[in-house]
Amino acid sequence: xxxxxxxxxxxxxxxxxxxxxxxxxxxxxxxxxxxxxxxxxxxxxxxxxxxxxxxxxxxxxxxxxxxxxxxxxxxxxxxxxxxxxxxxxxxxxxxxxxxxxxxxxxxxxxxxxxxxxxxxxxxxxxxxxxxxxxxxxxxxxxxxxxxxxxxxxxxxxxxxxxxxxxxxxxxxxxxxxxxxxxxxxxxxxxxxxxxxxxxxxxxxxxxxxxxxxxxxxxxxxxxxxxxxxxxxxxxxxxxxxxxxxxxxxxxxxxxxxxxxxxxxxxxxxxxxxxxxxxxxxxxxxxxxxxxxxxxxxxxxxxxxxxxxxxxxxxxxxxxxxxxxxxxxxxxxxxxxxxxxxxxxxxxxxxxxxxxxxxxxxxxxxxxxxxxxxxxxxxxxxxxxxxxxxxxxxxxxxxxxxxxxxxxxxxxxxxxxxxxxxxxx
Length: 424
Fold this sequence. Notes:
Layout: H1 4-9, H2 11-19, H3 27-64, H4 69-101, E1 121-126, H5 139-146, E2 149-150, H6 152-158, E3 164-165, H7 167-186, E4 191-192, E5 198-199, H8 201-206, E6 218-219, E7 225-226, H9 231-235, E8 242-244, E9 250-259, E10 278-288, H10 293-311, E11 315-319, E12 331-339, E13 344-353, H11 357-362, E14 365-367, E15 373-376, E16 378-386, H12 387-397, E17 405-406, E18 420-421
Parallel strand pairs: 4-9, 8-14
Antiparallel strand pairs: 1-11, 2-3, 5-7, 6-7, 9-10, 10-16, 11-12, 12-13, 13-16, 14-15, 17-18
């Protein structure tokens, strides 16, 4: 959500910022809507003031025994006009709100221009892509050959884009999630939080999933939503609150199941478990002072990178361009891992600084040292990392020529010491 005062005072700059997002000029239209709203509010206040004044005059005249017919007629007319204005004001407020909530966040100045992912910038690469001296298999080929990854049975039970993991692969996925969560909580200063997997519409609105991305969500019959990421409940932890400045930053981490309809991905990644309706993910969320959010963004991304470094998986950090940056983000880093089976880099983590965009929607503020509300907090979120995609990366990067999977030594404590799944 945007600050209407910024649009009023710097309409040209706002339109220029939206142009980077391929949004046509909107400032004057919003200013016009807001002008009508403000005029209506002013009219309501004027009518109320006149009504109160008339009431006093009528009381004085009655005490003097003087006629009050004219004032009473005026008061009756004012009541009708006031009722109409009071009904009109909320409508105008909603019109301004609806116009603002459809607009994406303003991009940071160092976000490169570009229409799509082709314009993303590789900032750094750690490790070299694995090029084994045998034909590398994709994760689903490995998993099915081991008898530990089943798609047909999952489809029989739940439909497409679901997977059943069995035995040591199920344990490996669990080990990855536990390893990540323990790393972030024990070494990176995040507090573990167990979150609801269903939230109300207000929570979805607060983190900008609604109304724009409703088709990507699963909705229950009672109007709640399955979370697409733990970002939603973690960020909404401070919704509607004023947080003491001294308490910031909050740093939360959660390992949860996530649910996405994948409405816009028909025909993409239909084989395997790269794009699922349900998947586990470790999510990191930070709630910070505005002055600290840029540094927190770097810190959060480094925490996600540490996961991949310890797993020994080649990765690269990408700075997303304007056309590939998410709706609510002012700046996003993606981490991509190398998948030998696909011979491609694939995204495994996305770390975004949302600035005050979500906080305005949630009305989440901080209180300064003087005890007065000082402004909106900044919110950040990042995958630390997607567990299912980490499983894919481990399977493909640690596969053996015989079709087995070596277990990274950092995961041995969660695997009962097992160092190999399947044949060596």
